[in-house]
Design a protein that fits this description.
The chain is 58% helix and 8% strand. By secondary structure, it is mainly alpha-helical. Strands 1-2 form a two-stranded antiparallel ribbon. The mean pLDDT is 90.
Length: 79
């Protein structure tokens, strides 16, 4: 089973928690630029950072991962 972080869902979880990027960043000890970069697929958060974000957002890791269709899994494996 291949799953991938869905940053759109990550952003949605922050917004559902009614947090700005600045508030989320302060809560986990990062910058608002870092939060923006995570949510816009510029960089991936470390697992520790992702777990901290989800804790602040009141979400679980399963809430922000999606299963990739077979074709996309094959394309990623070739990279």
């Amino acid at each position: 089973m291949t799953e991938m972080l869905n940053t759109t869902l990550l952003r949605a979880k922050r917004k559902s928690a009614k947090l700005t990027t600045a508030e989320a960043a302060q809560a986990i000890g990062k910058t608002s630029t870092a939060i923006w970069r995570y949510e816009n697929d510029v960089t991936l958060p470390s697992i520790d950072t992702l777990l901290a974000m989800l804790k602040v957002y009141g979400a679980e890791i399963k809430d922000v991962f999606v299963r990739l269709p077979e074709k996309e899994r094959d394309d990623i494996a070739l990279v």
